[in-house]
Amino acid sequence: MSWHKNLTDPITSKAVASVEAPLGFNDPVKAKSTAHTQPSQSQLEELKKKKIWDLAIGPGKQIPMNLFMSWMSGSSLQIIPITMTLMLFKNTINAILSTNSMFKPLETKNNSNDITLAKIVYFALNMVIIGIGLYKLDTMGLVPRKTGDWLSWEEQTIWSNVVV
């Protein structure tokens, strides 16, 4: 009795052919027969359109995280909340300034309207994030919006007709 099976034997090859390959097994013989074909131009346009909108709504996916992080850092004047708020502004402003370079590789002559609309959505969502940062600065008392914050620019009232 031998310890191996001869898979070329007609009797055992029938039994082996009826056994299915396990999940995840890539048969190299079948892989060569199903060669990967290039996508058509319309498929490429559709993929680019999908990628454009994925990039455009990316800042919207960060809004809940930024709200939660702003809430968790507190509203006291300490180094951690101030640093987190400044990083929020820095990252958002850098994202706004790099908008054109981010969408440039996906631009074609057919999708210029889609890219323009996606840039507007991208800018609007980044402005929402800047609004979160401004609200955070306001809760910390760093945004001058009360009359007491502007007293140094007030002129002193001189009463000339004072009767004593």
TrEMBL record:
It is found in: Endoplasmic reticulum membrane. The keyword Transmembrane helix applies. The chain crosses the membrane at residues 117-137. Keywords: Endoplasmic reticulum, Membrane, Transmembrane, Transmembrane helix. One of its GO terms (cellular component) is endoplasmic reticulum membrane. It comes from the Eukaryota. It is a multi-pass membrane protein. InterPro entries: TMEM85/Emc4. The keyword Nucleotidyltransferase does not apply. Belongs to the EMC4 family. This is ER membrane protein complex subunit 4.
